[in-house]
Amino acid sequence: MLKNTENGYGVIAKGFHWLLFFMLTFSVVAGNFLSSMPKGTEKLQSAGMHKSFGVILLLLILLRFAWKLINTTPRPPEGSTVIENLLAQGMHWALYALMFAQPLSGILMSQTAGYPVSVFGLFELPVLIDKNPSSAELFRNGHGVIWILLAVAVAGHVAAALFHHFIKKDDVLKSITVGTQV
Ligand code: HEM
């Protein structure tokens, strides 16, 4: 089924979940590689690819978020407490906030540093903010910290999924992987 139901996630939510997981992981690795490169034409070319890929990611995150908002959220597993459900929801919102913050801080870093953000040379993003070196430094630091917070949140999210699967033995992990919903 394409859409979510009360009993589990549909194909589109599952697709977004795993596609973004792999694309974000790739971007974190590529971003760290980019930061370690010496200044020069190779770094400029790699930065162009990283930025273009990041803008596509931002678009996919927006689409995923819109899909979440217009869809049913599967109900929590049997026997879970109100606190557990609130924690799970809080974690999901935090993951969205961090996913948005990472590419946005990158775009703002580039624009405040006075560099346009081109998407694979096809078009440029509108300039949202004026050039300002001290803001560029701030967004650069943010871009270097947010991915760490995101990685920590993802680790907690994975630990919770494994806890449900192996300790509580419910269908939470199956609902976003192999589970079929009725
Ligand atoms: C979700 C998407 C993105 C992820 C996961 C990501 C991840 C990263 C990471 C982990 C770093 C290394 C940070 C550090 O060690 O300080 C980095 C560097 C960088 N990112 Fe991103 N990034 C994303 C999107 C963007 C976007 C959209 C832009 C700009 C339009 C951008 C521009 C840059 C630049 C210019 C650097 C190099 C900073 C430097 O070496 O001074 N990133 N990115």
Helix/sheet category: mainly alpha
What top-tier CATH class fits best?
A: Mainly Alpha
Distance between the termini: 9 Å
* Elements, N to C (H/E): HHHEEHH
* Percent of residues in helices: 55-70%
**Roughly how many Å is the radius of gyration?**
19 Å
Tell how many strands the DSSP assignment holds. Answer: 2
**DSSP helical segment count:** 5
The total number of structural domains is 1
Residue runs with pLDDT of under 50 for 5 or more positions: none
Enumerate the distinct ligands: protoporphyrin IX containing FE
Spatial strand order of the main sheet? 1-2
> Looking at CATH, which topology would you report?
Fumarate Reductase Cytochrome B subunit
Beta-strand share of residues: under 5%
User: Biggest sheet, in brief?
Assistant: 2 strands, antiparallel
- The second-level CATH architecture is Up-down Bundle
**pLDDT averaged over residues:** 95
Shape category = elongated
Keywords:
182 residues; mainly alpha; Fumarate Reductase Cytochrome B subunit; 2 strands; 2% strand; binds protoporphyrin IX containing FE
Q: How would you describe this structure to a colleague?
A:
This protein is mainly alpha-helical. The protein has a single domain (11-175), classed as Up-down Bundle (Fumarate Reductase Cytochrome B subunit). Helices cover 69% and strands 2% of the residues. It is built from five helices and two strands; from the N terminus they run αααββαα. It has helices spanning 11-35, 41-70, 82-112, 133-168, 172-175; strands at residues 118-119, 123-124. β1 and β2 form a beta hairpin. The mean pLDDT is 95. Bound molecules: protoporphyrin IX containing FE.
